[in-house]
Design goal:
492 residues; alpha/beta; TIM Barrel; 2 domains; 5-stranded parallel sheet; 18 helices; 8% strand; globular
């Protein structure tokens, strides 16, 4: 029985139960709810009685726990208790050995001394009457709150650099990124200066390098048609590849520069037809998404307009949620059959399999290679759409950075998969969300709307790339496709 004031949401309860707790008593959560009920801030079901608030709170926690269990294909809490289905990020080995024996913590982090200092600081601040509540900003940017890698300064400087194509504007953007506080594992690394640079004639030409670049997948529906087409046009003009996401593609784009060269196949099979498959250079099987592993794609009903419904063979206004991926591909044999079917439809296309970064992924990658996949994509917690649940955005996935998640898994994939690869055709890919112009999210931000258009947004997407916008939007997207491709050529 764990009695704690720290646990308050479903993720906290799941962690405690996953490491062996039989029950959890979050006393501070109950006391806070009771105080809010007495103050009239939260309405209870029966005269603001605390017991009703507590009962509603427990129901919410239960639903959250069931959602977390379902991501792993677990149906009972007994199977989850003490299963330790986690990877620790940010704890020193001394803490792991005493509190979480047997669990994986590859990047280390805070020890008992740091945890104690943090607890004392929090306690001292709690008794200061003049201390104001922190502004927050964990999910959405708030001035004075938590630092965001894509803050207004970064977004504005990136868009300015894309529009002008000027190297000085790009350098201003790069300075914003390089000068930020450490936000990811890669921010703790720097390039070596004791190694002689390679001669330019020994390096591949830019055209050959760009051919291996691709933008991260986001479906039509999560992105507006104009933004989706602009990204495809820009990547095609660069000789790179754009990813359609799992929402299908308008057949009118096939055979044009608006075509996405990478077509995604997910558990929902939305928009997947023979015509869709044959108009691809790469067919990507989305086994899992790094930002929300265990969950399928989600498009709210209010975004399913007649055009989206037509492309996805659905009804307007009906929410579209792909089943959990393990309901679609339960074994390597299932994966091998799907790869075989895709290659029967389009023998010329490469088949990519998207996995989630995690300890021991090399073993899974070896099985994927044996199923005749051509590419293995390792996805970290970066990315995910605004339709992702907040609990998944905040708590699911691991970093795809050096020493953890993707890069370590990438190396493991190469070591275990390479001996089984036929003629070296299988190659791992990484989706770490790099900074500066190498960031796969940068193209989306570069085509986002100016602030004066944000009032048109139908959702809370801060960069307004997921909306139906004013008539000038289509002209702006065409201009963005030109400026992105031309700016990249100038910068290189």
């Amino acid at each position: 029985m764990v009695e704690t004031g720290s646990a308050r949401d479903a993720h906290h309860m799941a962690c405690l139960i996953g490491v062996g707790a039989t029950a959890v008593y979050p006393y501070l959560a109950y006391q806070t709810l009771a105080a809010l009920g007495r103050a009239g801030v939260v309405d209870g079901k029966a005269g603001n009685e605390p017991a009703e608030l507590g009962r509603s709170y427990r129901r919410g926690i239960k639903k959250g726990l069931l959602k977390i269990l379902s991501k792993m294909g677990i149906s009972t809490i007994a199977s989850y208790r003490a299963a330790q289905l986690f990877e620790i990020v940010g704890l020193k080995q001394e803490v792991v050995d005493l509190c979480f024996p047997g669990m994986v913590s590859r990047i280390q982090g805070a020890g008992f001394a740091e945890l104690e200092a943090e607890a004392w600081l929090l306690s001292q601040r709690g008794w200061l009457e003049a201390e104001e509540i922190e502004p927050g900003g964990r999910h959405k940017y708030v001035h004075g709150g938590e630092y965001h890698m894509y803050n207004p300064d970064v977004i504005a400087s990136l868009q300015r650099a894309v529009r002008s194509g000027d190297a000085a504007d790009y350098q201003a953007y790069a300075d914003h990124v390089d000068g930020r506080p450490a936000c990811t594992l890669r921010d703790l690394l720097k390039l070596r200066d004791d190694v002689a640079p390679a001669a330019l004639d020994a390096v591949e030409p830019a055209e050959a390098i760009l051919a291996r670049f691709d933008s991260a997948g986001m479906s039509l529906g999560a992105l507006s048609p104009e933004a989706h087409e602009a990204l495809a046009m820009a990547m095609n003009r660069l000789g790179a590849r754009s990813n359609s996401g799992e929402g299908g593609e308008d057949p009118a784009r096939h055979g044009t520069e608006k075509r996405s060269k990478i077509k995604q196949v997910a558990s929902g099979r939305f928009g997947v037809t023979p015509e869709y498959l044959v108009n691809a250079e790469v067919l990507q099987i989305k086994i899992a998404q790094g930002a929300k592993p265990g969950e399928g794609g989600q498009l709210p009903g209010h975004k399913v307009n007649p055009m989206i419904a037509r492309l996805r063979y659905a009804k307007p206004g009906i929410g579209l949620i792909s089943p959990p991926p393990h309901h679609d591909i339960y074994s390597i044999e299932d994966l091998a059959q799907l790869i075989f079917d895709l290659k029967e439809v389009n023998p010329d296309a490469l088949v990519s399999v998207k996995l989630v970064s995690h300890a021991g992924i090399g073993t899974i990658a070896a099985g994927v290679v044996k199923a005749y996949a051509d590419l293995i994509t390792v996805s970290g917690y970066d990315g995910g759409t605004g339709a992702s649940p907040l609990s998944s955005i905040h708590h699911a996935g691991t970093p795809a950075g050096a020493g953890a998640g993707g890069s370590a898994a990438d190396a493991a994939s190469e070591r275990s998969a390479a001996p089984r690869a036929r003629a070296g055709r299988r190659r791992p890919e990484d989706r770490p969300g790099r900074g500066q112009g190498r960031d796969p999210w940068a193209p989306r931000v570069s085509v986002s709307a100016p602030r004066r258009w944000w009032r048109w947004a139908a959702s809370t997407c801060a960069s307004a790339i997921s909306t139906t916008a004013p008539p000038a939007w289509r002209r702006r997207m065409r201009a963005c496709a030109r400026t992105i491709s031309s700016a990249c050529r100038k910068w290189r």
